[in-house]
Amino acid sequence: MPQGRPATVPDDGLTTRARRNAPLLAVHTGPGKGKSTAAFGMALRAWNQGFDIAVFQFVKSAKWKVGEESVFGELGRLHDQHGAGGAVEWHKMGSGWSWSRKSGSDDDHAAAAADGWAEICHRLAEERHDFYVLDEFTYPLRWGWVDVDEVVEVLRSRPGRQHVVVTGRDAPQGLIDAADLVTEMTKVKHPMDAGRKGQKGIEW
């Protein structure tokens, strides 16, 4: 795609403007670092265009403070006070499910994930936001807490021009097939391979 131009243009009767404004479903998956980071980078661009942003984190603990959350909180306040960019909402589901299962049973976590997905469905139907980040959403799909077929159907049939980015390892094939943009992060080297732990400003 030299200079952002597609290699072929489909004969679908749509104008260039219509294709450019089509809602995007993106999936960032794979074992490498950077899936969420890339999604939040897209959200920054969307905020700058005045899009209403909604982030739903499905795995990280409600006590886990990530740098992006702090930044988007400030951007949301900037919008509310001065009209810059777009509105921002940030939601965390559950109490931390993948890296440290410290509180609640699997049933509790599954119920929280289902409730979170139900809220997203409601918002999609209302066209409440312009840009959604469903961070680490592949995990509740993989664990069977949220039905993959239902997710694919809802995302495929969502109304309006709502963009959705889903992150997490091992994205199910049905979600990959439904997506417009799929990126697989592949690890080549990682500091942890040499025994180094996560670093401030890099991992959080």
TrEMBL record:
<dbReference type="GO" id="GO:0005524">
    <property type="term" value="F:ATP binding"/>
</dbReference>
<protein>
    <submittedName>
        <fullName>Cob(I)alamin adenolsyltransferase/cobinamide ATP-dependent adenolsyltransferase</fullName>
    </submittedName>
</protein>
<keyword id="KW-0808">Transferase</keyword>
<dbReference type="InterPro" id="IPR003724">
    <property type="entry name" value="CblAdoTrfase_CobA"/>
</dbReference>
<dbReference type="Pfam" id="PF02572">
    <property type="entry name" value="CobA_CobO_BtuR"/>
</dbReference>
<dbReference type="GO" id="GO:0008817">
    <property type="term" value="F:corrinoid adenosyltransferase activity"/>
</dbReference>
<dbReference type="GO" id="GO:0009236">
    <property type="term" value="P:cobalamin biosynthetic process"/>
</dbReference>
<dbReference type="InterPro" id="IPR027417">
    <property type="entry name" value="P-loop_NTPase"/>
</dbReference>
